[in-house]
Amino acid sequence: MDRLLPTESPFETIISFHKLIESFEQIALSNVDYRSNYAKAILKEIEAYPEFRTGIHDYSTIKNNEALIKNIAADLFPTALTNNEIKAITIPFQNISFNYTERFKKILRNAGDEFYMEIRDFDDHQFYINNCCLILSAYYHQNIDFNKPFFYDIPDEEGVEKHYRILYNADFMEITPTENAPQLTQDDIDVLIDNYNDIDLWKSKFPPRSWILKGFGIVSLFDATTESAISNLKSNLLKPETSRVASTEIVENIFRSIFKIPSLKVGFIIYNPEEEKFIRPIKFDNQMQSFLLSSTQEVDCKNAFFGCSFENLLDKKEPFVISNVKKFIEESSNPKLGEHLLKQGIQSCVFAPVIKDDHLLGVVELVSDNIRELNSINATKLELVLPYLTDTIDRYNTDMQHQVEAIIQREYTTIHPSVYWKFRKESQNYFQNINHTKDYIFKEIVFKNVFPLYGQIDIKGSSEHRNETVKIDLKNQLTALLEIFDNQKPNSNLVLLEQRKFELESLRSELDFPLKADMEQHIQRYIEDEIHPILKNTKDNAKNKKLEELYFESLDEKTGMFYQERKKFDNAMSIINKRLASVLDKKQVEAQQIYPHYYERFKTDGVEHNLYIGASISPTKPFDIMYLHNLRLWQLQTLCEMELEHHQLKESLPYELDVTSLILVFSSPLSIRFRMDEKRFDVDGTYNARYEVVKKRIDKSNIKGTDERITEKEKITIVYSQNSEEAEYLKYIKYLQHKKILEPSIEQFEVEDLQGVSGLKAIRVKVINNVNNSKIKKITYQDLLDELN
After folding, report:
1. Is-contact 127 9, C-beta < 8 A?
2. Three-state SS at 367
3. Cα–Cα dist 132/10, whole Å
4. Nearest 5°: phi and psi at 458?
5. Do the beta carbons of residue 454 and residue 609 sit within 8 Å?
6. How far is CA 465 from the centre of its chain?
7. 3-state secondary structure (DSSP) of residue 665
8. Facing residues of 166 across strands?
9. Are 219 and 167 in contact (CB under 8 A)?
10. What share of the chain is helix, strand, coil (3-state, %, to 5)?
11. For residues 610 and 416, is the Cβ–Cβ distance under 8 A?
12. Which long-range CB contacts under 8 A does 524-528 form with residues at least 24 apart?
């Protein structure tokens, strides 16, 4: 007899057979001799045990009288059904059970001595309240449906977990209150019904051991392994995205219960119809394996590896079953697949297509270590679970598409979160009108009366540096070729070699002058068409052969030219842009807390940014000009941090590059419009175009009356046109000087006239770049390369 009582119960439980004894007494008075004699014999045997009627308090009495109890309950437990039914005497919801049928005994023996039977997901809280509901139903005659499905999870002799539905019969029980049981009104009962989770309330109305539960119940188990396993699979597969996908162990245990195969393993691959490939999603790497793609991430579904084996799966969308892998290798025209499976210890397998709307979504893989354990007959069980797999994979594909669209929007378009609401609103209008007879005309996305902020941190002399590195690489390549020609064997075609040497030397001499626009392409074509064929077709001595090998090893794979110096320059540019953009993006997250505003950033030969702030961008939040001033100070501070970031990078870069910083101040509000053809925002209106003209030309401008650029390395230049703007920025500069971010000296000058624009002025101030100003730790060039890659 199993016995484990919860810590608290509203019942004092007394096991009694009084109701059964009373039925025997009725039968003993009947006129049917054999029934009457049988009942009298049972009653006579019970006479020595009055506690069977009054109530058993010592549970050892049950254990010592198992044969008598079996005789008493014989009508309820027919001998003819003992090997079929799974029944026992019990007390509902309590782990007290005895008088098992033979089938029940066998199930418990197979589970092992260490197994303890308890109701799945049934805690003390549920136990207490369910017993209270028993009282409400039996004593207070309340129509309460409190019997949710209960299950026992019991492993079989092979360790496969089986699931049994629990059914109770309480006909032989009676419930009576003690003197400690409060009498409940209908209002009390109504309050209880509305407060299932309030355990203290229930205990106040049904104090522990305030009721007597006398008698016994009968528990019958129904093997619901398949149904329960499918329900568990459904619960795990249909979890929301915030939950992790079910682990391999959970899924495999569920499938093992369905197929009754302890060694069953489960895998899965997704089908990509655009590329006609099978893919093992990286997302599932730690949660779902694949036996077809065990060593690769994807494979063409028409690959020779699959041969004709998967034709039915792909074309007819039918499961592909191998009940004996060794036999399949011997008889199949495609033994590679069988050998691949056999290496993994797979002896039988099923590969079933997951289909939705006649489209293949993926393939579920079931494999076993034993021959014929998986076959075409039990493969039909997959029909029970494939609908849930279909919904899961379809949901995965839909989620993936949404995420892809989100990535495209984030990485390839300029729809910033601050203005996304307006695009969404217009899209919703389109969606709601999509079925109307007249065509829907998209409204233009315009934000009026916004204040612009523009800033940039530009790499100084980037074009000159780029040209210089190109010239160095070209000279090095031409020099290497001339060295090879100088070491050619004497019996070579001297006339041709001398001509080519002359041409190479002439090209090298031209590189002593400024680089012409097409010089790089001209030299590249000449080397590829005239020089490389000679090197590849000329037999030479060992020394020259070594020189040629070193030369070809030095060529860049993509360009076929020397790329050493240019690569250093390009890497330095990329590192600077990435690190500065990272600083700007990180600071921008903080800036959005000042007031929501539109932000866009561009990487060119440096990093540029545009900000637009105004009430039309965030109509639900009141706008004040104070937010603009806050954002301007933020912008100036951020450029200072970007300057400091660059200063820390300089000594680690493979190619030293300086930067210049610029802010353009524009105090008049303007409108920005989303250009549908260019898929980006631009200023709207002729007057506002003046702002764009200044923005494009200002960084190349000179100080008025001089040849000196307005921008200078390690300094921030602020360009403005109004005295109020000058006064505002001088306050910011004074504040940052106080914080030891900017140097004390300030330069002020006029800017040369631009086309259609005059009267611009500028302030220039140097950033203090000592080490104490920066909290960035030292970093090596290799660290930067790793970060870049």
Report:
1. yes
2. strand
3. 7
4. -110, 145
5. yes
6. 43
7. strand
8. 150, 221
9. yes
10. 45, 20, 35
11. no
12. 524/559, 524/560, 524/561, 527/477, 527/481, 527/561, 528/560
Q: At what angle do helices 564-591 and 462-486 cross, to 10 degrees?
A: 160
Question: How many CA atoms, within 13 angstroms, populate the side-chain half-sphere of residue 328?
Answer: 24
pLDDT digits (tens, 9 = 90+) for 590-615: 899 989 998 888 888 889 999 999 99
Rounded alpha-carbon distances, angstroms, from residue 356 to 67, 234, 238, 360: 59, 17, 16, 7
Q: E-assigned strands of 108-186?
A: 150-155, 161-169, 173-177
The answer to whether the CB of 164 falls within 8 A of the CB of 223 is yes
Determine phi and psi for 325, rounding to 5 degrees. Answer: -65, -40
Q: DSSP letter string over 467-524? A: HHHHHHHHHHHHHHHHHHHHT--TTS-HHHHHHHHHHHHHHHHHTTSPPPTTHHHHHH
**756: region left, alpha or beta (phi > 0 left; psi from -120 to 50 alpha):** left
Strand order in the sheet with 320-322: 298-300, 277-279, 265-272, 359-368, 348-356, 320-322
Condensed to tens digits (0 to 9), the pLDDT of residues 433-474 reads: 655 445 666 677 888 899 999 999 998 888 888 888 888 888
Tokens of 671: 């409108």
Structure tokens of 491? 């019996």
Please give the helix or strand (H or E) that residue 386 lies within, else none. Answer: helix 382-412
Radius of gyration in angstroms for the set of CA atoms belonging to the chain, rounded to a whole number = 42
Measured in degrees and rounded to the nearest 5, phi and psi for residue 206 equal: -130, 80
Q: Are 205 and 184 in contact (CB under 8 A)?
A: yes
* Average pLDDT of the chain, as a whole number: 83
Sorted by sequence, the CB contacts under 8 Å of residue 625 that are 6+ apart come out as: none
Please give the Cα distance from 13 to 118 (Å, whole number): 18
Closest Cα partner for 312 from 377, 381, 360?
360
Which residues are CB-contacts of 288 (< 8 A; sequence separation ≥ 6)? Answer: 245, 248, 251, 266, 267, 268
Answer whether residue 244 shows pLDDT above 50.
Answer: no
CA distance 153 to 453: 66
Asked whether 335 and 325 are in contact (CB, 8 A), the reply is no
- According to DSSP, the residues that pair with 211 across neighbouring strands are 11, 177
Distance CA 547, CA 543 (A): 6
Question: Full-prediction pTM beyond 0.90?
Answer: no
Report residue 778's pLDDT band, with 50, 70 and 90 as the boundaries: low
- Per the CB < 8 A criterion, the answer to whether 326 and 241 are in contact is no
629 contacts 556 by C-beta, under 8 angstroms: no
